[in-house]
UniProtKB/TrEMBL annotation:
<feature type="domain" description="PDZ">
    <location>
        <begin position="89"/>
        <end position="161"/>
    </location>
</feature>
<keyword id="KW-0812">Transmembrane</keyword>
<keyword id="KW-0645">Protease</keyword>
<dbReference type="InterPro" id="IPR004447">
    <property type="entry name" value="Peptidase_S41A"/>
</dbReference>
<dbReference type="InterPro" id="IPR005151">
    <property type="entry name" value="Tail-specific_protease"/>
</dbReference>
<keyword id="KW-0378">Hydrolase</keyword>
<dbReference type="Pfam" id="PF13180">
    <property type="entry name" value="PDZ_2"/>
</dbReference>
<keyword id="KW-1133">Transmembrane helix</keyword>
<keyword id="KW-0472">Membrane</keyword>
<feature type="transmembrane region" description="Helical">
    <location>
        <begin position="7"/>
        <end position="28"/>
    </location>
</feature>
<dbReference type="InterPro" id="IPR001478">
    <property type="entry name" value="PDZ"/>
</dbReference>
<keyword id="KW-0720">Serine protease</keyword>
<dbReference type="Pfam" id="PF03572">
    <property type="entry name" value="Peptidase_S41"/>
</dbReference>
<dbReference type="InterPro" id="IPR036034">
    <property type="entry name" value="PDZ_sf"/>
</dbReference>
<dbReference type="InterPro" id="IPR029045">
    <property type="entry name" value="ClpP/crotonase-like_dom_sf"/>
</dbReference>
<protein>
    <submittedName>
        <fullName>S41 family peptidase</fullName>
    </submittedName>
</protein>
<comment type="similarity">
    <text>Belongs to the peptidase S41A family.</text>
</comment>
Length: 529
């Protein structure tokens, strides 16, 4: 590690010499002449790349050499400075912007054909009359079926410039001929607020999956809806939320903190400190808030939890968070690619950094989850290791710790039934979704008159569906799977997936949360206070 630290200036110089142009997003105090000045160390790498390009015995893609070199440099800095290749930039930008231009359907490729799972509410396809179960056969005369067609190619044919039109031919079960639709492409939201609904008569619930440009607007609409329904207390679910824009996290904290309260401060390597304070904009300052976190809540999620905890505002519920206290800034490299470079550390209002150590390298850093699992920390709060030298005290006298995540006020162990690795894997890989789609295809009319809330409150998944899902998996995997020990949990996954495909708009979370022990704990806390 001493070797790495000694040569960090060298490798950064090399990165610049590789033709990387860092745009005006940085506030360097050095002049451009000094920053990009020529020296032999930078020229050395340029010459090597030229030698390889012109004289190496085999044809070599020097772009790939540059990519590998950039990644190697960043890996020697910290775990969160990353390189984004140009082929990934559009997807990454869309996710963080919070929308894209398209026709507004969720789909999957079913038997070599695009099958619509659901038309997004109020999107172009929904307005035109596209329904779940429809098969999109052609777009502007190009066929969209066949084993050779990849999802990426399909998406390119359905995307386009805003207000441009695409002519679709659609097969709908029960219709004698293909249906024709002309759809005007529009902005399609990539939602970062998964759900906003009432848990009890007074307790509202909002689930945020990341902090994108659109998140605050979605969040504000969610809490305003819940306040209109009578919410006087709020649950902010940040579990599995990896973070995002720091400024968006600050806006959300501002909804709960009183005027002029410190939200956080950042410090760069030159010791420059920037502070962020709450304003008068908050609409939930006088109400109770519960923040749910787990071992996958990181970065901006921890900013929210840390700021509220340090001001004795609300209750943090769950398990110790991830521990990412580094701030990245995205910088374009001139060829469509970019780097997200760590430029500062952030500190919670009491002055604690929650960044966990990374001195043993990236692999050990990312493997820490397994260490937490092996140590028993995810089941027993007494197993959480704290550093007494990083002890801080809130204005209300509560002891909090820095050095590795936010430790909750109320601990809730991991639920090994609903968070079973096999079931989670099947969900992530789309097995539940595909199975439910095929079940719906048998007779969608069964659910035509079913209201969302009636489905959530009263619908029950029968044992026959569990056995059918078991058979479905065994035909498509090498393993012989049985769900004897997790019968009820499988029912919950199936029901939640059904709700999602039928209704969307947070229906999955409303169903799934019915068996969530952390939600149960919050409801108890709310009722008991």
């Amino acid at each position: 590690m001493a070797y790495q630290k000694k040569y960090l200036p060298l490798v950064l110089g090399i990165a610049i010499a590789m033709g990387i142009f860092i745009g005006g997003k940085l506030n360097f105090t050095d002049s451009p002449d000094r920053l990009f000045s020529t020296n032999s160390k930078k020229d050395k790498l340029n010459r090597l790349i030229d030698y390889i390009e012109y004289d190496y015995v085999d044809e070599i893609n020097t772009d790939s050499i540059v990519d590998v070199t950039v990644n190697g440099i960043l890996e020697n800095l910290d775990p969160h400075s990353i390189y984004i290749p140009k082929e990934d930039m559009e997807r990454v930008s869309e996710e963080m912007k919070g929308d894209f231009v398209g026709i507004g359907v969720s789909f999957y490729t079913y038997k070599d054909t695009i099958a619509v799972i659901r038309a997004i509410e109020n999107g172009p396809s929904a307005k035109a009359g596209i329904k779940g179960g429809d098969r999109i056969i052609m777009a502007n005369g190009d066929s969209l079926f066949g084993n050779s067609l990849k999802d990426g190619e399909i998406i390119k044919k359905l995307k386009g410039s805003i207000n441009s039109k695409v002519k679709l031919k659609v097969y709908r079960k029960g219709e004698p001929e293909l249906l024709d639709f002309t759809i005007k492409r529009g902005k399609i939201p990539i939602k970062s607020v998964d759900a906003a609904y009432m848990l009890t008569k007074k307790l509202g619930y909002v689930k945020i999956n990341r902090f994108a440009e659109s998140t605050y607007k979605e969040f504000k609409a969610g809490i305003e809806k819940l306040q209109a329904l009578g919410a006087t207390e709020m649950v902010l679910d940040l579990r599995d939320n990896p973070g995002g824009f720091l400024g968006i996290a600050e806006q959300i904290v501002d909804e709960f903190l009183e005027d002029d309260k410190l939200i956080l401060f950042t410090k760069n390597k030159r010791g420059s400190i920037e502070k962020s304070f709450a304003t008068s904009a908050g609409d939930f300052e006088d109400s109770k808030v519960y923040v749910l976190i787990d071992e996958n809540s990181a970065s901006a999620s921890e900013i929210v939890a840390g700021a509220l905890q340090d001001h004795d505002k609300g209750t943090i519920v769950g398990r110790r968070s991830y521990g990412k206290g580094l701030v990245q800034r995205e910088m374009e490299l001139g060829d469509g690619s970019a780097v997200r470079l760590t430029v500062s550390r952030y500190y919670t209002p009491t002055g604690r950094s929650i960044q966990r150590p990374y001195k043993n390298g990236n692999k050990d850093y990312y493997d820490e989850y397994f260490e937490r699992l092996d140590s028993g920390e995810l089941l027993d709060p007494k197993k959480i290791q704290v550093d007494d030298s990083l002890k801080f005290t809130t204005p209300g006298g509560k002891i909090v710790y820095g050095g590795g995540g936010i430790i909750p006020d109320v601990f809730v162990p991991i639920d090994n039934s609903m968070q079973n690795e096999t079931l989670s894997f099947l969900q992530r890989r789309g097995f539940f979704g595909n199975f439910v789609f095929e079940e719906l295809e048998k007779d969608r009319h069964v659910y035509e008159d079913t209201l969302k809330q009636d489905f959530i409150d009263t619908f029950e998944v029968g044992d026959d569906l569990v056995f059918a899902f078991q058979d479905y998996l065994n035909l498509r995997t090498d393993s012989k799977i049985t769900f004897v020990a997790y019968h009820e949990e499988v029912k919950q996954y199936i029901k939640a997936t059904l709700a999602d495909q039928l209704f969307g708009n947070g229906a999955f979370e409303e169903v799934f949360n019915q068996r969530d022990i952390m939600i149960d704990e919050v409801v108890k806390l709310s009722d008991g206070e």
